[in-house]
Amino acid sequence: MPPKPVMLVRPPLGILLDDGFWDEMEEAGIDEVAIQWLALLDDQGGDQTRYPQIEDTHPRGLAAVGGEPVQRTPVAAYAPDRGLYDGLTFSPPDLPDHMTSESTKLKLALRKATERGFGIWLMDDKGYFLFGGFGDGTQRKALACVNDPDLAGYAVQRARDTCSNFPGGSGMILDGPDFKWEIKPGHRDDMFVEECGCRHCVRVAESLGFGYEHVLEGRDAFKARLQNLSPQIVDDQLANRGGLFGGLDWWLEEPATADWMRYKATVIEQHVRAICDGIHEYMPDMKVATSSRMPALAPITGHVVRRKMAFSDIEMPKLYWWYGGVAGFRGTVANWVDTLVEWNAGLTREKALDWFSAAFDVPMPSDYQPSEYGEEATDAWFDTTVDDQIRKMLAQTGGPERFVPWVGLEHFGSKWVTPSELRRLLQRMEAQGVQRYAYFVYNSVTPEIWSVITEFSRK
What we know:
The chain has helices spanning 19-27, 59-64, 100-115, 149-165, 199-207, 212-226, 231-240, 243-252, 255-282, 305-308, 329-343, 349-359, 379-397, 419-431, 447-457, and strands at 4-9, 32-35, 39-42, 49-51, 70-76, 119-125, 171-175, 287-292, 314-320, 406-408, 436-440. By secondary structure, the chain is of the alpha/beta class. An 8-stranded parallel barrel has the order 1-2-6-7-8-9-10-11, surrounded by 4 helices. α1 (19-27) links the parallel β1 (4-9) and β2.
């Protein structure tokens, strides 16, 4: 069975008020829709943002705001039940009085969609740093740490509140949190500059038997090892450190680094488990999906997917293959190779790529080097690197029934995945038995991309 998308839509959510959108989904064989930011757009608020976003060129997005881009403030899509949040540090955002009619329209549109048989997924877009969590698109940073149990408690209550206002949903999607995965200095996701160290961080570290300063010591020791990769060290690692115990031997040479990894995995598991368990407690029939990076990168971000499957219903790893910008795998590989060469005199790009391939357990074809990642990917890239990551995702999640990967084409100034690359990605997914994927994002779909998506969804 070919893979079919859960189509993600973000503001302007006026797109969802148009019956033509739902007709389009139905005609394409698409019967599930996810909402990234359940937010209304207020023309009277502060901190306004352009809608549609620069990369969002779909005609329905423009039509939803009157045909021309506008400046708006995203606000909560419903008035909260404040009693749900008693005793929590965080308070839910209000629905402005003058937006009540817009809230009613959105509720009616989604109710009609569920009556037509569409599944609706609601998404908490990195609620660990948003005041609103479920149902709020303000993206204001909270003075909060992911280790604060009140943050997970708030997300659970926000999920309850959201589902009572928008009943009939298929499930909830948790996006993040993640520890960072880049090493390029100055990059948004540079793992060597992130730290918190608040009392909640200290508490988690001490529960593992060490202080928080030991966590930072392990992080910095990992960087020092990356800055000491001579060709001889790389050759030794490739030739003599394979297998389960070869890797263990490498980690035990610097115990603080192993503890840094253990700390990150503990943080992610405790936070995500608390949200999943809380949602299941109050809404036992609600499916909860959690997100992660693809298998090569998930462990360094704190995600141990096989353990997460004990408490989440669906895993959504990110098949993000673009180059440049942020969060795309080709961009990350190129950044690692470039930075390792910069840090280590005498280390060639070929040798740095060999190290990355071995260290992250991901095969790299010889006919497609990081210096070429801005160009169309070769078939060998899909037959090796892409195929490898899909296979591992399926194994980690337990099979296609619990596996709905994210598929996206770009982020923030990246080199977009091409229609040809998307087609070959979907072909590899189909060959491995993937049944569903979440497409990011409808708002930026072009006719060429829509043609590829529907080539599979209509089968």
